[in-house]
Amino acid sequence: MNEKRRVICYCRVSTDEQAGNYSLPTQLEACRKYAEKNDFVIVGEFSDDYSGATPIEARPEGRKAFTMLKSSEADCLIAYSMDRIARPPEEGDEWDMPNLIRGLAKLGKELHTVNRGPLKTDFASLLIAMMDARSAGEERRKITERTNRGKNAKAQNGRVVGNGHPPYGYRFQYQYDERRRKNVAIGLEIDEDESPIIRDIFDWYTKSQLSFYLIAKRLSEQAIPTSGESRKGTWRKREAGLWSAKIVRDFLDNPVYIGCMHYGKDDIIVQVPPIIDRLTWEATRKRREEKNVTSHRKNEYLLSGRILCGCGRHFTGRPSGGIPYYSCSSYGHRITSIEERTCHERTIRAAALDNAAWDFALQSKKSAAEFMTMLKEYQEQQKKDAAPLAEQIAGIKTLLDTTARKIKRLASLRGSASDDDEAEQYTADLEAAKADKVTQERKLHKLESEYNWMDTLTDDDILTVHEIRERDLKQLQGATFEEKRRYLAKIDLCVTIKDDVVHFSSMKRVSRQDIVEVPIKQLLIASRYSPADSAHR
Predict the structure, then answer these.
(1) What is the pLDDT of residues 92-108, one digit of tens each?
(2) What is the CATH number of domain 6-149?
(3) Which of 46, 109, 358, 477 is the most exposed place for a label (fewest CB within 10 A)?
(4) What is the DSSP annotation of 343-397?
Protein backbone atom coordinates (compact mmCIF):
# COMPACT_ATOMS: atom_id res chain seq x y z
CA MET A 1 0.00 0.00 0.00
CA ASN A 2 1.34 3.41 -0.98
CA GLU A 3 2.03 5.78 1.89
CA LYS A 4 -0.27 8.79 2.03
CA ARG A 5 1.21 12.13 1.03
CA ARG A 6 1.70 14.61 3.88
CA VAL A 7 0.25 18.06 3.25
CA ILE A 8 0.12 21.50 4.85
CA CYS A 9 -3.05 23.62 4.71
CA TYR A 10 -2.20 27.31 4.29
CA CYS A 11 -4.65 30.23 4.59
CA ARG A 12 -4.14 33.98 4.35
CA VAL A 13 -6.01 37.23 4.84
CA SER A 14 -4.56 40.70 4.51
CA THR A 15 -6.48 42.79 7.05
CA ASP A 16 -7.51 42.58 10.70
CA GLU A 17 -11.12 42.94 9.58
CA GLN A 18 -10.87 39.85 7.37
CA ALA A 19 -9.06 38.00 10.15
CA GLY A 20 -12.09 38.57 12.36
CA ASN A 21 -14.71 37.36 9.87
CA TYR A 22 -15.30 33.94 8.32
CA SER A 23 -12.65 34.09 5.57
CA LEU A 24 -9.98 32.01 7.36
CA PRO A 25 -12.36 29.25 8.58
CA THR A 26 -13.92 28.85 5.12
CA GLN A 27 -10.50 28.69 3.44
CA LEU A 28 -9.31 26.11 5.95
CA GLU A 29 -12.46 24.01 5.55
CA ALA A 30 -12.05 23.99 1.75
CA CYS A 31 -8.37 22.92 2.08
CA ARG A 32 -9.35 20.12 4.48
CA LYS A 33 -12.01 18.80 2.08
CA TYR A 34 -9.48 18.91 -0.79
CA ALA A 35 -6.99 16.91 1.30
CA GLU A 36 -9.64 14.35 2.23
CA LYS A 37 -10.83 14.01 -1.37
CA ASN A 38 -7.25 13.32 -2.58
CA ASP A 39 -6.46 10.94 0.30
CA PHE A 40 -3.82 13.25 1.82
CA VAL A 41 -2.87 13.35 5.48
CA ILE A 42 -2.68 16.85 7.00
CA VAL A 43 0.49 17.42 9.07
CA GLY A 44 0.21 21.18 9.56
CA GLU A 45 -2.21 24.10 9.32
CA PHE A 46 -0.97 27.71 9.11
CA SER A 47 -2.82 31.03 8.80
CA ASP A 48 -1.30 34.45 8.05
CA ASP A 49 -2.78 37.91 8.49
CA TYR A 50 -0.33 39.38 6.00
CA SER A 51 -0.11 41.13 2.64
CA GLY A 52 -0.09 38.91 -0.45
CA ALA A 53 2.61 41.16 -1.94
CA THR A 54 5.08 39.60 0.51
CA PRO A 55 6.46 36.24 -0.75
CA ILE A 56 4.81 33.35 1.09
CA GLU A 57 8.16 32.06 2.38
CA ALA A 58 8.81 35.49 3.99
CA ARG A 59 5.53 35.64 5.96
CA PRO A 60 5.58 34.51 9.62
CA GLU A 61 3.39 31.41 9.21
CA GLY A 62 4.34 30.87 5.57
CA ARG A 63 7.99 30.64 6.64
CA LYS A 64 7.07 27.84 9.07
CA ALA A 65 5.18 26.00 6.31
CA PHE A 66 8.14 26.25 3.90
CA THR A 67 10.52 25.09 6.63
CA MET A 68 8.43 21.92 6.94
CA LEU A 69 8.56 21.42 3.16
CA LYS A 70 12.32 21.94 2.92
CA SER A 71 13.01 19.68 5.93
CA SER A 72 10.87 16.91 4.35
CA GLU A 73 8.29 17.02 7.13
CA ALA A 74 5.64 17.56 4.43
CA ASP A 75 5.26 16.80 0.72
CA CYS A 76 2.70 19.38 -0.46
CA LEU A 77 1.18 22.74 0.44
CA ILE A 78 -2.52 23.42 -0.21
CA ALA A 79 -3.98 26.93 -0.50
CA TYR A 80 -7.52 27.95 -1.35
CA SER A 81 -6.52 29.89 -4.48
CA MET A 82 -3.52 31.50 -6.16
CA ASP A 83 -4.12 34.90 -4.53
CA ARG A 84 -3.66 33.27 -1.12
CA ILE A 85 -0.13 32.23 -2.21
CA ALA A 86 0.87 35.40 -4.06
CA ARG A 87 -0.44 38.76 -5.21
CA PRO A 88 2.51 40.15 -7.21
CA PRO A 89 2.96 43.83 -6.29
CA GLU A 90 4.27 44.93 -9.70
CA GLU A 91 3.61 43.87 -13.27
CA GLY A 92 6.19 41.27 -14.28
CA ASP A 93 6.54 39.80 -10.79
CA GLU A 94 4.08 37.05 -11.77
CA TRP A 95 6.99 35.26 -13.49
CA ASP A 96 8.32 34.42 -10.01
CA MET A 97 5.47 31.91 -9.61
CA PRO A 98 6.73 29.40 -12.26
CA ASN A 99 10.20 29.67 -10.68
CA LEU A 100 8.74 28.89 -7.25
CA ILE A 101 6.81 25.88 -8.59
CA ARG A 102 9.82 24.48 -10.46
CA GLY A 103 12.14 25.14 -7.51
CA LEU A 104 9.89 23.14 -5.15
CA ALA A 105 9.48 20.41 -7.78
CA LYS A 106 13.27 19.93 -7.82
CA LEU A 107 13.00 19.20 -4.10
CA GLY A 108 10.15 16.74 -4.74
CA LYS A 109 7.51 19.11 -3.29
CA GLU A 110 4.23 20.38 -4.76
CA LEU A 111 1.90 23.36 -4.51
CA HIS A 112 -1.86 22.77 -4.78
CA THR A 113 -4.83 25.14 -4.94
CA VAL A 114 -8.39 24.03 -4.27
CA ASN A 115 -9.68 25.45 -7.56
CA ARG A 116 -6.76 24.34 -9.81
CA GLY A 117 -5.41 21.21 -8.18
CA PRO A 118 -1.65 20.47 -8.36
CA LEU A 119 0.45 23.24 -9.94
CA LYS A 120 2.52 21.14 -12.34
CA THR A 121 5.77 21.96 -14.13
CA ASP A 122 4.72 21.37 -17.75
CA PHE A 123 4.53 24.41 -20.01
CA ALA A 124 0.73 24.72 -20.04
CA SER A 125 0.41 24.38 -16.25
CA LEU A 126 3.18 26.91 -15.58
CA LEU A 127 1.54 29.33 -18.00
CA ILE A 128 -1.82 28.97 -16.21
CA ALA A 129 -0.15 29.49 -12.82
CA MET A 130 1.59 32.61 -14.13
CA MET A 131 -1.71 33.98 -15.50
CA ASP A 132 -3.47 33.25 -12.18
CA ALA A 133 -0.71 35.14 -10.34
CA ARG A 134 -0.99 37.99 -12.84
CA SER A 135 -4.76 38.24 -12.29
CA ALA A 136 -4.27 38.24 -8.52
CA GLY A 137 -1.66 41.00 -8.82
CA GLU A 138 -3.88 43.13 -11.07
CA GLU A 139 -6.77 42.80 -8.63
CA ARG A 140 -4.53 43.87 -5.75
CA ARG A 141 -3.20 46.87 -7.67
CA LYS A 142 -6.74 48.01 -8.53
CA ILE A 143 -7.85 47.73 -4.90
CA THR A 144 -4.74 49.60 -3.74
CA GLU A 145 -5.26 52.35 -6.33
CA ARG A 146 -8.93 52.88 -5.35
CA THR A 147 -8.14 52.83 -1.63
CA ASN A 148 -5.20 55.23 -1.93
CA ARG A 149 -7.20 57.60 -4.12
CA GLY A 150 -9.87 57.89 -1.45
CA LYS A 151 -7.36 58.29 1.38
CA ASN A 152 -5.35 60.89 -0.54
CA ALA A 153 -8.50 62.90 -1.21
CA LYS A 154 -9.31 62.79 2.49
CA ALA A 155 -5.77 63.92 3.43
CA GLN A 156 -5.80 66.72 0.83
CA ASN A 157 -8.93 68.07 2.53
CA GLY A 158 -6.91 68.37 5.73
CA ARG A 159 -8.41 65.33 7.45
CA VAL A 160 -6.36 62.66 9.20
CA VAL A 161 -6.59 59.22 7.64
CA GLY A 162 -7.52 56.77 10.39
CA ASN A 163 -5.45 53.82 9.28
CA GLY A 164 -3.92 51.59 11.96
CA HIS A 165 -2.74 53.24 15.17
CA PRO A 166 -2.22 56.98 15.79
CA PRO A 167 1.34 58.21 16.45
CA TYR A 168 2.54 57.79 20.03
CA GLY A 169 1.45 60.86 22.00
CA TYR A 170 -1.81 61.24 20.07
CA ARG A 171 -5.25 59.64 19.89
CA PHE A 172 -7.86 59.76 17.14
CA GLN A 173 -10.78 62.19 17.18
CA TYR A 174 -13.92 60.35 16.09
CA GLN A 175 -17.20 61.47 14.57
CA TYR A 176 -20.27 59.34 13.90
CA ASP A 177 -20.88 58.79 10.18
CA GLU A 178 -24.61 58.42 9.47
CA ARG A 179 -24.05 56.87 6.05
CA ARG A 180 -21.57 54.24 7.22
CA ARG A 181 -23.26 53.90 10.65
CA LYS A 182 -20.04 53.90 12.60
CA ASN A 183 -17.46 56.24 14.14
CA VAL A 184 -14.75 57.40 11.72
CA ALA A 185 -11.49 59.22 12.50
CA ILE A 186 -11.55 62.89 11.52
CA GLY A 187 -8.38 64.14 13.22
CA LEU A 188 -5.75 63.76 15.94
CA GLU A 189 -5.76 65.17 19.45
CA ILE A 190 -2.98 65.17 22.03
CA ASP A 191 -2.97 62.26 24.47
CA GLU A 192 -2.33 63.78 27.88
CA ASP A 193 -0.82 60.53 29.23
CA GLU A 194 1.67 59.92 26.42
CA SER A 195 2.59 63.45 25.26
CA PRO A 196 4.76 64.21 28.36
CA ILE A 197 6.93 61.22 27.40
CA ILE A 198 7.51 62.72 23.96
CA ARG A 199 8.51 66.07 25.48
CA ASP A 200 10.93 64.30 27.87
CA ILE A 201 12.56 62.42 24.99
CA PHE A 202 13.21 65.64 23.05
CA ASP A 203 14.49 67.44 26.17
CA TRP A 204 16.84 64.61 27.13
CA TYR A 205 18.25 64.55 23.61
CA THR A 206 18.68 68.31 23.12
CA LYS A 207 19.31 69.63 26.65
CA SER A 208 20.82 66.64 28.49
CA GLN A 209 22.66 65.45 25.33
CA LEU A 210 21.73 61.81 25.98
CA SER A 211 22.15 59.22 23.22
CA PHE A 212 19.30 57.13 21.78
CA TYR A 213 20.50 54.18 23.84
CA LEU A 214 20.65 56.11 27.13
CA ILE A 215 17.20 57.59 26.56
CA ALA A 216 15.81 54.09 25.90
CA LYS A 217 17.56 52.85 29.04
CA ARG A 218 16.09 55.69 31.16
CA LEU A 219 12.56 55.02 29.87
CA SER A 220 12.99 51.31 30.56
CA GLU A 221 14.29 51.93 34.08
CA GLN A 222 11.22 54.06 34.77
CA ALA A 223 9.00 51.21 33.46
CA ILE A 224 7.12 53.57 31.14
CA PRO A 225 4.78 51.65 28.81
CA THR A 226 6.08 51.53 25.24
CA SER A 227 4.10 52.39 22.14
CA GLY A 228 3.65 48.66 21.52
CA GLU A 229 2.07 48.13 24.92
CA SER A 230 -0.26 51.12 24.61
CA ARG A 231 -1.54 49.89 21.23
CA LYS A 232 -3.67 46.83 21.79
CA GLY A 233 -2.80 43.98 19.47
CA THR A 234 0.65 45.28 18.51
CA TRP A 235 3.18 42.46 18.33
CA ARG A 236 6.42 42.92 20.29
CA LYS A 237 9.60 40.86 20.54
CA ARG A 238 10.81 42.45 23.77
CA GLU A 239 9.33 42.26 27.23
CA ALA A 240 6.94 44.90 28.57
CA GLY A 241 8.49 48.26 29.52
CA LEU A 242 11.66 47.79 27.46
CA TRP A 243 12.40 50.53 24.94
CA SER A 244 14.77 50.35 21.97
CA ALA A 245 17.15 53.00 20.65
CA LYS A 246 15.50 52.68 17.22
CA ILE A 247 12.08 53.71 18.58
CA VAL A 248 13.65 56.74 20.28
CA ARG A 249 15.37 57.73 17.02
CA ASP A 250 12.12 57.35 15.06
CA PHE A 251 10.29 59.61 17.52
CA LEU A 252 13.00 62.27 17.24
CA ASP A 253 12.80 62.18 13.44
CA ASN A 254 8.98 62.34 13.20
CA PRO A 255 7.72 65.83 12.17
CA VAL A 256 4.22 65.00 13.45
CA TYR A 257 5.36 66.27 16.86
CA ILE A 258 5.66 69.85 15.50
CA GLY A 259 2.20 69.54 13.93
CA CYS A 260 3.08 68.28 10.42
CA MET A 261 1.74 64.81 9.65
CA HIS A 262 3.04 63.54 6.30
CA TYR A 263 0.82 61.15 4.38
CA GLY A 264 1.13 59.10 1.18
CA LYS A 265 3.62 58.97 -1.67
CA ASP A 266 2.69 62.50 -2.68
CA ASP A 267 3.81 63.61 0.81
CA ILE A 268 0.56 65.35 1.66
CA ILE A 269 0.90 67.39 4.87
CA VAL A 270 -1.98 67.37 7.35
CA GLN A 271 -1.86 69.89 10.19
CA VAL A 272 -2.27 68.39 13.70
CA PRO A 273 -1.80 69.85 17.22
CA PRO A 274 1.97 70.12 17.99
CA ILE A 275 3.46 68.50 21.10
CA ILE A 276 6.85 70.27 20.97
CA ASP A 277 7.78 73.79 19.85
CA ARG A 278 9.70 74.74 16.72
CA LEU A 279 12.89 75.72 18.63
CA THR A 280 13.15 72.26 20.22
CA TRP A 281 12.64 70.65 16.81
CA GLU A 282 15.40 72.78 15.24
CA ALA A 283 17.78 71.93 18.10
CA THR A 284 17.04 68.25 17.53
CA ARG A 285 17.71 68.53 13.81
CA LYS A 286 21.01 70.33 14.44
CA ARG A 287 22.28 67.62 16.79
CA ARG A 288 21.08 64.83 14.45
CA GLU A 289 23.01 66.39 11.55
CA GLU A 290 26.16 66.76 13.67
CA LYS A 291 25.86 63.13 14.78
CA ASN A 292 25.44 61.90 11.20
CA VAL A 293 28.67 63.64 10.21
CA THR A 294 30.73 62.34 13.14
CA SER A 295 29.31 58.80 13.05
CA HIS A 296 29.89 58.22 9.34
CA ARG A 297 30.75 54.56 8.85
CA LYS A 298 34.45 54.21 8.14
CA ASN A 299 34.43 50.45 7.59
CA GLU A 300 32.83 48.61 4.68
CA TYR A 301 30.78 45.52 5.54
CA LEU A 302 30.26 43.35 2.47
CA LEU A 303 27.52 41.21 4.07
CA SER A 304 25.55 44.03 5.66
CA GLY A 305 21.87 42.97 5.75
CA ARG A 306 22.62 39.39 4.63
CA ILE A 307 23.51 37.59 7.88
CA LEU A 308 20.75 35.95 9.91
CA CYS A 309 21.46 34.81 13.47
CA GLY A 310 20.15 31.55 14.86
CA CYS A 311 18.19 33.55 17.45
CA GLY A 312 16.10 35.14 14.69
CA ARG A 313 17.81 38.54 14.60
CA HIS A 314 20.36 39.84 12.11
CA PHE A 315 24.11 40.22 12.46
CA THR A 316 25.28 43.81 12.00
CA GLY A 317 28.68 45.38 11.46
CA ARG A 318 30.35 47.22 14.32
CA PRO A 319 34.00 48.07 15.01
CA SER A 320 35.90 47.02 18.14
CA GLY A 321 39.34 48.47 18.79
CA GLY A 322 39.35 49.86 15.26
CA ILE A 323 38.76 46.38 13.74
CA PRO A 324 35.41 45.70 11.97
CA TYR A 325 33.37 42.77 13.34
CA TYR A 326 29.94 41.23 12.75
CA SER A 327 27.80 40.58 15.82
CA CYS A 328 24.17 39.75 16.57
CA SER A 329 22.01 42.88 16.74
CA SER A 330 20.77 41.75 20.15
CA TYR A 331 24.17 42.76 21.50
CA GLY A 332 23.69 46.41 20.52
CA HIS A 333 19.97 46.60 21.27
CA ARG A 334 20.04 44.90 24.66
CA ILE A 335 19.96 47.14 27.73
CA THR A 336 22.78 45.48 29.65
CA SER A 337 21.76 46.41 33.18
CA ILE A 338 18.13 45.40 32.66
CA GLU A 339 17.80 42.71 29.99
CA GLU A 340 19.23 39.24 30.26
CA ARG A 341 21.46 38.05 27.42
CA THR A 342 19.51 35.61 25.23
CA CYS A 343 21.87 35.15 22.26
CA HIS A 344 25.32 33.62 22.78
CA GLU A 345 26.62 33.54 19.20
CA ARG A 346 30.15 34.93 19.13
CA THR A 347 31.20 37.90 17.06
CA ILE A 348 33.19 37.27 13.89
CA ARG A 349 35.89 39.33 12.29
CA ALA A 350 34.37 40.95 9.20
CA ALA A 351 37.36 40.24 6.95
CA ALA A 352 37.21 36.48 7.63
CA LEU A 353 33.47 36.17 7.01
CA ASP A 354 33.51 38.46 3.96
CA ASN A 355 36.32 36.44 2.33
CA ALA A 356 34.59 33.12 2.98
CA ALA A 357 31.30 34.44 1.58
CA TRP A 358 33.00 35.80 -1.54
CA ASP A 359 34.74 32.47 -2.13
CA PHE A 360 31.35 30.75 -1.91
CA ALA A 361 29.77 33.28 -4.27
CA LEU A 362 32.45 32.68 -6.90
CA GLN A 363 32.23 28.89 -6.46
CA SER A 364 35.99 29.02 -6.11
CA LYS A 365 36.14 25.43 -4.84
CA LYS A 366 34.82 24.17 -8.18
CA SER A 367 37.48 23.86 -10.83
CA ALA A 368 36.73 24.48 -14.50
CA ALA A 369 36.54 20.71 -15.09
CA GLU A 370 34.13 20.22 -12.16
CA PHE A 371 31.92 23.04 -13.42
CA MET A 372 31.89 21.51 -16.92
CA THR A 373 30.95 18.12 -15.44
CA MET A 374 28.13 19.75 -13.48
CA LEU A 375 26.76 21.34 -16.67
CA LYS A 376 27.01 18.02 -18.53
CA GLU A 377 25.07 16.28 -15.75
CA TYR A 378 22.46 19.02 -15.89
CA GLN A 379 22.23 18.55 -19.68
CA GLU A 380 21.73 14.79 -19.31
CA GLN A 381 19.00 15.32 -16.74
CA GLN A 382 17.26 17.76 -19.11
CA LYS A 383 17.44 15.16 -21.89
CA LYS A 384 15.88 12.55 -19.60
CA ASP A 385 13.11 14.98 -18.69
CA ALA A 386 12.51 15.77 -22.38
CA ALA A 387 12.72 12.14 -23.62
CA PRO A 388 8.99 11.27 -23.16
CA LEU A 389 7.99 14.40 -25.06
CA ALA A 390 10.50 13.65 -27.83
CA GLU A 391 9.02 10.14 -28.16
CA GLN A 392 5.52 11.61 -28.49
CA ILE A 393 6.76 14.02 -31.18
CA ALA A 394 8.42 11.16 -33.11
CA GLY A 395 5.23 9.11 -32.86
CA ILE A 396 3.06 11.97 -34.16
CA LYS A 397 5.46 12.52 -37.08
CA THR A 398 5.26 8.81 -37.99
CA LEU A 399 1.48 8.98 -37.78
CA LEU A 400 1.46 12.08 -40.02
CA ASP A 401 3.54 10.23 -42.65
CA THR A 402 1.07 7.35 -42.57
CA THR A 403 -1.88 9.74 -42.87
CA ALA A 404 -0.24 11.56 -45.81
CA ARG A 405 0.21 8.23 -47.65
CA LYS A 406 -3.38 7.33 -46.88
CA ILE A 407 -4.65 10.63 -48.32
CA LYS A 408 -2.59 10.09 -51.48
CA ARG A 409 -3.94 6.53 -51.87
CA LEU A 410 -7.59 7.56 -51.30
CA ALA A 411 -7.28 10.38 -53.81
CA SER A 412 -5.96 7.90 -56.39
CA LEU A 413 -8.74 5.39 -55.65
CA ARG A 414 -11.42 8.07 -55.92
CA GLY A 415 -10.13 9.04 -59.37
CA SER A 416 -10.38 5.43 -60.59
CA ALA A 417 -13.73 4.63 -58.93
CA SER A 418 -16.08 2.49 -61.08
CA ASP A 419 -19.31 4.21 -60.03
CA ASP A 420 -20.65 7.26 -58.16
CA ASP A 421 -21.34 5.36 -54.93
CA GLU A 422 -17.77 4.08 -54.73
CA ALA A 423 -16.41 7.58 -55.51
CA GLU A 424 -18.63 9.08 -52.80
CA GLN A 425 -17.31 6.59 -50.24
CA TYR A 426 -13.70 7.36 -51.15
CA THR A 427 -14.48 11.10 -50.90
CA ALA A 428 -15.88 10.65 -47.39
CA ASP A 429 -12.83 8.61 -46.34
CA LEU A 430 -10.55 11.22 -47.91
CA GLU A 431 -12.18 14.10 -45.97
CA ALA A 432 -11.92 12.13 -42.73
CA ALA A 433 -8.21 11.48 -43.39
CA LYS A 434 -7.62 15.18 -44.07
CA ALA A 435 -9.40 16.06 -40.81
CA ASP A 436 -7.15 13.56 -38.97
CA LYS A 437 -4.11 15.22 -40.53
CA VAL A 438 -5.18 18.67 -39.30
CA THR A 439 -5.70 17.30 -35.78
CA GLN A 440 -2.31 15.56 -35.83
CA GLU A 441 -0.54 18.71 -37.10
CA ARG A 442 -2.08 20.77 -34.30
CA LYS A 443 -0.98 18.23 -31.72
CA LEU A 444 2.52 18.14 -33.22
CA HIS A 445 2.74 21.94 -33.09
CA LYS A 446 1.66 21.93 -29.44
CA LEU A 447 4.15 19.22 -28.46
CA GLU A 448 7.00 20.91 -30.34
CA SER A 449 6.18 24.21 -28.61
CA GLU A 450 6.35 22.47 -25.23
CA TYR A 451 9.61 20.77 -26.19
CA ASN A 452 11.18 24.04 -27.36
CA TRP A 453 10.04 25.71 -24.12
CA MET A 454 12.05 23.15 -22.14
CA ASP A 455 15.16 24.80 -23.65
CA THR A 456 17.54 21.86 -23.22
CA LEU A 457 21.22 22.83 -23.05
CA THR A 458 23.14 22.09 -26.23
CA ASP A 459 26.88 21.41 -26.36
CA ASP A 460 27.36 24.93 -27.78
CA ASP A 461 25.31 26.32 -24.86
CA ILE A 462 27.59 24.55 -22.38
CA LEU A 463 30.70 26.00 -24.01
CA THR A 464 29.15 29.45 -23.99
CA VAL A 465 28.13 29.23 -20.32
CA HIS A 466 31.60 27.98 -19.43
CA GLU A 467 33.28 30.83 -21.32
CA ILE A 468 31.00 33.41 -19.69
CA ARG A 469 31.74 31.94 -16.25
CA GLU A 470 35.49 32.05 -16.78
CA ARG A 471 35.27 35.63 -18.07
CA ASP A 472 33.03 36.74 -15.17
CA LEU A 473 35.27 35.05 -12.60
CA LYS A 474 38.31 36.90 -13.94
CA GLN A 475 36.41 40.21 -13.84
CA LEU A 476 35.01 39.56 -10.37
CA GLN A 477 38.42 38.66 -8.94
CA GLY A 478 39.27 42.36 -9.04
CA ALA A 479 35.75 43.62 -8.28
CA THR A 480 35.23 46.76 -6.22
CA PHE A 481 33.22 46.76 -3.00
CA GLU A 482 30.08 48.03 -4.75
CA GLU A 483 30.47 45.48 -7.59
CA LYS A 484 30.72 42.71 -5.03
CA ARG A 485 27.60 43.99 -3.23
CA ARG A 486 25.66 44.00 -6.52
CA TYR A 487 26.84 40.48 -7.37
CA LEU A 488 25.80 39.12 -3.95
CA ALA A 489 22.38 40.70 -4.43
CA LYS A 490 22.13 39.14 -7.90
CA ILE A 491 22.75 35.61 -6.63
CA ASP A 492 20.63 36.26 -3.50
CA LEU A 493 23.36 35.19 -1.07
CA CYS A 494 22.14 34.24 2.39
CA VAL A 495 24.37 33.69 5.43
CA THR A 496 23.04 32.04 8.59
CA ILE A 497 25.04 31.65 11.81
CA LYS A 498 23.87 29.11 14.38
CA ASP A 499 25.69 27.13 17.05
CA ASP A 500 29.10 28.43 15.92
CA VAL A 501 28.56 27.25 12.33
CA VAL A 502 28.21 29.55 9.31
CA HIS A 503 25.81 28.41 6.57
CA PHE A 504 26.24 29.91 3.09
CA SER A 505 23.43 29.43 0.55
CA SER A 506 22.10 31.03 -2.62
CA MET A 507 18.71 30.59 -4.29
CA LYS A 508 20.10 31.35 -7.77
CA ARG A 509 22.92 28.84 -8.06
CA VAL A 510 22.75 25.92 -10.52
CA SER A 511 22.03 23.53 -7.66
CA ARG A 512 19.41 24.96 -5.29
CA GLN A 513 20.36 22.48 -2.60
CA ASP A 514 24.02 23.44 -2.68
CA ILE A 515 24.64 24.75 0.87
CA VAL A 516 28.10 25.13 2.35
CA GLU A 517 28.65 24.94 6.12
CA VAL A 518 31.82 26.36 7.69
CA PRO A 519 32.59 26.11 11.44
CA ILE A 520 33.42 29.51 12.91
CA LYS A 521 36.60 28.00 14.37
CA GLN A 522 37.78 27.31 10.82
CA LEU A 523 37.19 30.95 9.88
CA LEU A 524 39.20 32.04 12.90
CA ILE A 525 42.13 29.84 11.88
CA ALA A 526 41.89 30.97 8.25
CA SER A 527 42.04 34.63 9.24
CA ARG A 528 45.08 33.98 11.49
CA TYR A 529 43.82 35.37 14.74
CA SER A 530 43.04 33.75 18.06
CA PRO A 531 39.48 32.69 19.03
CA ALA A 532 40.00 34.81 22.12
CA ASP A 533 39.92 37.91 19.89
CA SER A 534 36.28 37.20 19.03
CA ALA A 535 35.22 36.56 22.61
CA HIS A 536 35.17 40.22 23.59
CA ARG A 537 31.42 40.07 24.08
Answers:
(1) 777 778 888 888 888 88
(2) 3.40.50.1390
(3) 477
(4) --PPPEEHHHHHHHHHHHHTTTTS-HHHHHHHHHHHHHHHHHHHHHHHHHHHHHH
